[in-house]
Amino acid sequence: MGLTDQLNAAVDAPPPPGYDMNQLLRRGRRARTRRRVATGAAGLGAVALVAGTYAVAAQGGPDERAGAVATTTTPAATVSPPHPVTTSPAPADRAATIARLNATLRKLPASFGVPHGTGFAFHHDISFPFGYYNASWTHAGVRYAVQVNFTRDPLPSADSCGQPPTASCTPLFRPDVHAFLIEDRRQRFTIAVGSRTDGTVVQIAAYRNGSGPLIDPHLLFQGTVLPGFAVTP
Amino acid sequence: MDEAGFHEYIAARMETLRRAAYLMCGDWHTADDVVATAVVKLYRDWGRLSRLGNLDAYVRRMVLTAWLDEQRRPWRRERSMPAPPSRAVAAGDGPVADRLTILGHLAALPARRRAVIVLRYYCDLSVEETAEVMGCSAGTVKSQTARALDALRASMVDVSDLA
Q: Is A63 in contact with A196 (CB distance < 8 Å)?
């Protein structure tokens, strides 16, 4: 018997599969959601970097900045949206929303350490047809990013929660908000994403540099449910 | 996402992928794990991958990569057992003996040579198709195949029809 025949004979009576196809599909959906979250986080970082660059440029040349502390935080009043589009809210509405979000930013617990001058800025890209509001800062070795946007998607289900290998995802559902608490020990970030019944999605991410402990996701969750973090009044 | 297209594609190929993975891994549990990993990744990226010209080669590569990754995991490097494993040494009589013999000889090959044998003589791929799946040159496939066949020949597997 030749090699090909022997190989065929070796697998001619396989046992029943040890996996459930429906379970694999659920894992696939979760993997897709995780990838989208990771892509969003990377995009957020890129936007923060660009916004920081704009902010530094808007402050003037090196002489004017002498003595100033280098920072990538985003003062709202100095940053223009990188891609203004027709679906974005009117400037007056945008300013009112930013004022409300900034006021709410001050209500975050002291452990977030929001530096003075940190504020929201409006951004837009193809992933967010209604635009989104973003504020980011660094405190005690942790870079925080708060993102508030609006969606017409239905509230996510528990199946949308990602699972290991590297990230743990805990769904936390209340009548007014469906939230996911995501913790990735390898990539060293913690994210709370809250989807509210009014269509507002609030995401608070904490990226830990160095070897310190990760941020408690429940602390981030408390931030996502603050009433002032809303796109509509 | 074209969910129906995914189901149709995977239903037609699942069993072949599973059997090929078994020939590489040597046990059905690992083969199921490897195929499951590939299916999850395929589903995750189906929107993009379904437009590929040669999806079958890509999926076989996903299975191969999943298995090679599995091989590298720390808990796969060393196995505790009460006695040294016995290796099949000669063909016996009957299909079960044949099966154990070829699996034993395959298990003795290095991972990539085993993969070459499975892809060429079980999946019936050409040298060029095998090279595409393995991400190497056609020359490497030829040399790996020759060495693997030499090893099998030395183990008394009948490869005369391939000379």
A: no
**Buried b vs exposed e over A194-230: b needs ≥16 C-beta within 10 Å?**
bbbeebbbbbbbbbbeeeeeebebebbbbbbbbeebb
The interface predicted TM-score of the complex, written ipTM, equals 0.79
Q: What angle do CA B15, B18, B21 make, to 5 degrees?
A: 150
> Of A4, A6, A28, which is closest to B98 when you measure between CB atoms?
A6
Residue by residue, DSSP assigns A162-183 as: --TTTEEEEEEE-SSEEEEEEE
* Chain A residues 21-40 within an 8 A CB cutoff of chain B: 21, 24-25, 27-29, 31-32, 35
Instruction: Determine contact, residues A145/A136, Cβ cutoff 8 Å.
Output: yes
B chain contacts of residue A4, beta-carbon cutoff 8 Å: 121-122, 124, 161
pLDDT above 90 coverage of chain A, percent: 3
Amino acid (one-letter) located at A210? G
Placement of tokens 């019936």 in the chain: B124
Residue B22 has pLDDT above 80, yes or no: yes
| pTM for this entry | 0.49
What does the CA dihedral A40, A46, A51, A57 come to, rounded to 10 degrees?
180
* pLDDT less than 70: residues of chain A: 1, 54-88, 125-129, 160-167, 186-187, 210-211, 233
Could you tell me the domains of chain B? 3-73 (1.10.1740), 95-158 (1.10.10.10)
**Which chain B residue's Cα is nearest to A8?**
B122
Tell me: the pLDDT tens digits for A110-123? 888 898 888 998 87
A101 in Cβ contact with A135 (< 8 Å): yes
